[in-house]
Automatic annotation (TrEMBL):
It comes from Cedecea neteri. Keywords: Oxidoreductase. This is 3-oxoacyl-[acyl-carrier-protein] reductase FabG. Belongs to the short-chain dehydrogenases/reductases (SDR) family. One of its GO terms (molecular function) is 3-oxoacyl-[acyl-carrier-protein] reductase (NADPH) activity.
Length: 194
């Protein structure tokens, strides 16, 4: 894929793995949309780092758990070069919640951000990308474990992997790849040393 005038949207790109992905895509020549939910200062730092290294980036605020925010995010991202070429869904949350009745509110929040958000991002990506596009969603290697208090997070990421498999089949014939990447524990704000 040649990257001149190509746009990549990275959700959760203001820090952590999302930021590293955004910076790499910029080094590869993409104009990068740095999506963030609430930390404008971190998003602006990411954009500045990309620009200081000769890249092109813009920050766009959108909460992936909000349908209207996701719709607006894709419209604004697509308007940059009148197309969208790559979508990396990295946004997510990971509060530690045991499987107890008291954990239901946190479970709902995790599912809303990590799974419902992934559904909306993947659905909008499928409608927005042209032939040859790429969709990547972040999952986690923690799915293979049964750590206490990780239940809601593991459930949300297992759901993301299911969506990725189905969307890949739904987009068959359009030359759009859909993949999940499951990094191991990485020392970021989301997954500090535990």
């Amino acid at each position: 894929m040649t990257t001149a005038n190509k746009t990549a949207l990275v959700t959760g790109a203001s820090r952590g793995i999302g930021r590293a992905i955004a910076e790499r895509l910029a080094r590869d020549g993409f104009t990068v949309v740095v999506n963030y939910a609430g930390n404008k200062a971190s998003a602006d730092e990411t954009v500045l780092a990309i620009k200081n290294n000769g890249g092109n980036a813009v920050a766009i605020q959108a909460d992936v758990s909000s349908e209207s925010d996701v719709t607006r995010l894709f419209a604004e991202a697509k308007a940059i070069h009148n197309q969208l070429d790559v979508v990396v869904h990295s946004a997510g949350i990971m509060p530690m919640v045991k499987i107890t009745p008291a954990g239901l509110a946190e479970f709902d929040k995790i599912i809303s951000t990590n799974l419902r958000g992934a559904f909306m991002v993947l659905a909008n990506a499928a409608e927005s990308l042209q032939e040859g596009g790429r969709i990547i969603a972040l999952s986690t290697s923690v799915i293979a474990k049964s750590f206490p208090a990780y239940g809601p997070y593991i459930a949300s990421k297992a759901g993301v992997e299911g969506l990725v498999h189905v969307l890949a089949n739904e987009l068959r014939g359009r030359n759009i790849t859909v993949n999940a990447v499951a990094p191991g524990p990485t020392g970021t704000d989301l997954f500090p040393e535990r």
